[in-house]
Each structure stands twice: as structure tokens, then as C-alpha cells.
Amino acid sequence: MKFKMNMRMRHILEGYSFISLWIVGFLAFMAVPLGRSIYYSFQNLSPSKSGLIADYVGTQHFRAAFTVDVQFLPLLQSTFTNMLTHVPLVLIFSMASALLLNRSFRGRMVFRGIFFLPVIIASGSTLKKLMEQGAANLPIFMDYDLYSTLRLFIPSDLLMNLLEYADALTIVMWDAGVQTLIFLAGLQTISPALYEAAKCDGATKWESFWKITFPMIMPMILVNTLFTMVSSFTRADNGVMDYINQRVFADNDYGYASALGWIYFVLIFIMIGIVFLLFRRSLSSMEGR
Amino acid sequence: MANPQAIVDKLKMSDKIDPAVKFYTIKKSKNFVGNAFYYFVLLSLAFIFLYPLLYMVSKSLMQTWDVADATVRWIPHELNFHNYRVAFTEMKYWQGFSNSMIISFGSALLQIVSCSMIGYGFARYRFPLYGVWFVLLIFTFLVPPQTIVVPLYMFFSDLGWINTHLPFIVPAAFGHGLQGALFILIFIQFYRRMPAVLEEAARIDGAGAFRTYWQIMFPLGRPAMITVFLFSVVWHWNDNFQPSLYLRLPPFYNLAQRMNGFYGKATMTAEQMSSSVSSGAIGMAPTVLNQMMAGVVLSVIPILILYLFVQRYFVESVERAGIAGE
């Protein structure tokens, strides 16, 4: 009995020593800063020679964000609507390119290399710099030559909209690199025997996609949804993020910036909670099988 | 079972069935149209993905008047490497390069060591409060950096770490830092899939827990390591948010910051001016887009070279590392 206890204790100790590094880091770089930022969000902080002087103001900052601040709410709204359109597009597109790349064909490695290139190039500051050229996006389709050629076939009003939309889509495509990779890894784990069996039972490709592929990669769809949401909230060109930075470094308004950060964080958490609820049914039905 | 009709029916059916291989390969000769269409789709997508690269390389090689010339789209009249020289000196390239190298390679290597160990602990051990720590791990993945930016900045500035590389390196050593939680999750998934036999054998041979991990499991984690390494290097390299917080003086800027602040040197030499007049671009504002793009190319070239080398392993390793989980 005593020996067994020792084994168990040792197992626990070993486990904890493996993750102890992370726990220390969590306390230093996450828990303490989070606690301090809650504290700051109820204070007015003013810098002085002997550090910051805190002055309790209650929920004033939170009320101000919703009532006084004219910039914050519109920024918040545009960030969330952007995300709502962005996430489904990224998911559909990355799924499509993963399906394309999952077949074996000549030059597969080369195409894969190219498809993940945007992960390297079109991320963060490089993309930001490139997009400074055209107002919101790089004009690939919004091009005079293409426009004048296509105008012969399509009415010009419609054409303008189409081309603009195509340009917006290219940004989505550049954003989908990691998600494509995740889907591709998921597709590789599906056993070919399943498709064989479905084919023997007379399923078309369309049917076997919806009955086999789709349910099998449901977990990856969840992972990708979360990843896309998180990355779109923390993107370099995100309005709210810029705004909070401005409050910190231009105005030195630490208390207010912390309050804004918390409002943003809580809203993101609610969104992610909704996604989990939506996926819970499909995931639990899969596990139940 | 021995119904002859059923067997005949089955045989007839199996005639119609192509081998399952058909799902994965395109039949070479028969399906020429479908094949051509498939490659057309692939190539046009490839163009869209290559576009940013082609765009910046082509623009960076242009003369000023080529940029303004509507008839010049991709191929400049003559190659102009002057832009690169300007961008190189204006951005103080080597200074930025070494800052970026230390931050991204240092953090990436430390994250491999720390995240792999932590991931192994989460994958192989069960201990009290396991669920709590795991939920907190997911939580760190979801917390936007804006929420804790103020206290973190003050924390690092109290320690005197502003304008040093430490705010990047130290959290990475603890398995945090840029996307640390995601990297831990990748390692957890990877180690969970590994068979336990190897460790059991090592334990029976008398190796302790750490020795088993360090000599057996850590080297086996290579597929996951490659994935984590490349992502970590690239994300640190391109990140502009954290460096803009912690590196506040120009000599400490990394390449991304320098590139962001570089809009080209607007002054033109007399020779350039006269030739731009002769090429007929009178009245055009002197654009320095070409120099700016040279700056962008210079700042992505190091990771592009890295990608060329590890690309092959990268895609394979992502498949094996199971980045997505079960």
C-alpha cells in the first residue's frame, strides 16, 4: 500500500515538474498582469516622478466607453462585423484549397509550397505595408486592362462591384494559409477505406463529402473557427487594437485603456462561448458514436 | 450466401466501381478536360498567392518613371538595383536584421525547448488540478494581448527591460510569449499520439522521468518541432505589435518596424530628375514606391530563404505532427 502511494506521488511530482515552468510563466506573464489590469480599469492613473499615482474612480471608465467615447463603439462594431464575414469566408476557402491539395498530382509539393507562402509574406506588417498602396486592399482585379476587356461582356456597374469583391476575397485567401494546413492535416487522417466503402454502396463524390469528409473534420472546423477568430481580433490592422495602443502611448491614459481592453476581452469571450455552444452538439454526437 | 445471382450482381457492380485510388489521383489520359481545368484552378490560385511577392519584387526593381508609367506593369524597362542600396542604408539593415534574428530565432529555439517539455507533461501525466491548468492553457491562447498590455509594459519597464530583447526571450523560455499556448497544444497532440512502449522500455532500463523525456521523447518530437520553429520564427519576424511596445528607440527597432517606417527617400539626384523629365513623366509626384518595396523585399528575404529550406519538411511535419488534434 505504501509503495503504491509512493508511485502515485512520484507520478504527480514528475507531472508537475514538467509543467512547473509554464505555471511560473503563467503567474508572471498572465495572471498577475490580468489582475493588475482589472485593478487599473477602476482607477485613474497619472504618471509622476515616483511612478504611477492611482486614484479610485469606480466604473467611470466603463461607463465612459459606452457613453462618452465617440470612437470606441463604432470601432468595436466594425471589428465584430468584419469578423462575422471574415470567418466563414476563410473557412470555406481554406477547406476548398485543402481539398484541392489533398489529391495527388504532378507538382503537388511545389503547389503546396506556394499555397502556404502567404503565411510567410502576407502576414503582419508586410501585408499592412502592401495594403497602404490601394486604400483597403491590393488591386489585383481592380485593374484598368481587365476592366476595359470585361466591360464588353458585363455591364460596368456590376463589373465594378464584382472586381471590388474579388479583391476583398484575395485578402481572405492570403489569410487562410494556416487554416488550409490544419484542414489538410485533418484530411490526411481520414482512412481511404471509408471512401472505398461508400463508393461500393453507390455514393457519389458529393454524398461522400458530406457524409464522410465533413463529419470527420468537424473538430478541425472548430479549431479553425477559433483560430481565425482569435487571429482576426489580434490582427495588426485591427481598429480596436490600434485605438487601445493610442490611449496607452499617446494619451498615457492607462486606466481607460485597461477598461477598454477588458470590454474587448469580455466580448471576445462571449463570441467564443457562442461558437463552442454551436459546435457542442455536432462534436458530442460524434463522440457518442 | 451461396446465391449465384447475388454473386453475379456483385461482380457486375464491381465492374462499375473504379479503384478507390480514383479519389486521390486524376486519371491521366482519359480525363483530359477535367485535368486541364484542375490545373487551371491550381495555377490561378497560385498566381493569387504569388502576387504579393511578384508585386514587390517587380516594383522594387523599377526606376521611378517606370512606376509612374501605366504601360509598365510587371517588367521594368531596365533593372534598377539602386532602390535596394537606398533601402539598405536608410533602414540600417544590419542593425535591424540582427535585432530581428535575436528576437525570432532566440524565442523560437527557447519555445521549442520549453513548449515541448510542457506539452509532454500535459500529454503524459495526470495530476490533481490537471483540468484547471489545461483550461488556463486554453485561456492564455484566447486572451487578446491588448487586455494585459498596460500591466505587462509597466512590469517590463520596472525591470528595466524596455529597449532590450528580454521581453521577447524570457516569456518564450517559460512557454509563453507569442502564441506559446498554441505551440504547447501542438506538442500535446503530438506526444499523445506517440506509443508509450518506448518510454516504458527506457523506464525499465532504469532511466528517470527527465532522462526518458530528454533522450527519447524530445528527439522524437522533430516533426512537431519543425512546425513550431517555422511558425514561431515567422510570427516573431513579422510581428509589429509587441516590438512597437517594447522597442521604443530606433537603434533597437527590428526589421518589421524599420520597414514600416520606411517610405523611401524622396530626394532625387539631378541625373534621375533629368531622365525622369526626358521619359515624359512631367508633373508626376516623385514616387518612392519602388524604394519602399525594396525595403519590404529586404525585410522578408531572410524568412523566405528559411522557408525555401524547411518547406519540404514543414508540410510533411504538419501532417505528422497533427497540428489539428483528434
From TrEMBL, chain A:
It is found in: Cell membrane. Residues 76-279 form the ABC transmembrane type-1 domain. It is a multi-pass membrane protein. Its main location: membrane. The keyword NADP does not apply. Keywords: Cell membrane, Membrane, Transmembrane, Transmembrane helix, Transport. The keyword Ligase does not apply. The chain crosses the membrane at residues 83-102, 109-127, 168-187, 208-234, 254-279. It holds the Pfam family BPD_transp_1. Belongs to the binding-protein-dependent transport system permease family. This is Lactose ABC transporter permease. It comes from Paenibacillus montaniterrae. The lineage of its organism: Bacteria, Bacillati, Bacillota, Bacilli, Bacillales.
TrEMBL record, chain B:
Signal peptide: none annotated. The keyword Cell membrane applies. It is a multi-pass membrane protein. It comes from the Bacteria. Its main location: membrane. One of its GO terms (biological process) is transmembrane transport. Residues 97-310 form the ABC transmembrane type-1 domain. It holds the Pfam family BPD_transp_1. The keyword Transit peptide does not apply. GO terms for cellular component: plasma membrane. The chain crosses the membrane at residues 36-57, 101-123, 130-156, 168-191, 212-237, 292-310. InterPro entries: MetI-like, MetI-like_sf. Keywords: Cell membrane, Membrane, Transmembrane, Transmembrane helix, Transport. It is found in: Cell membrane. Belongs to the binding-protein-dependent transport system permease family. This is Transporter. It comes from Paenibacillus montaniterrae.
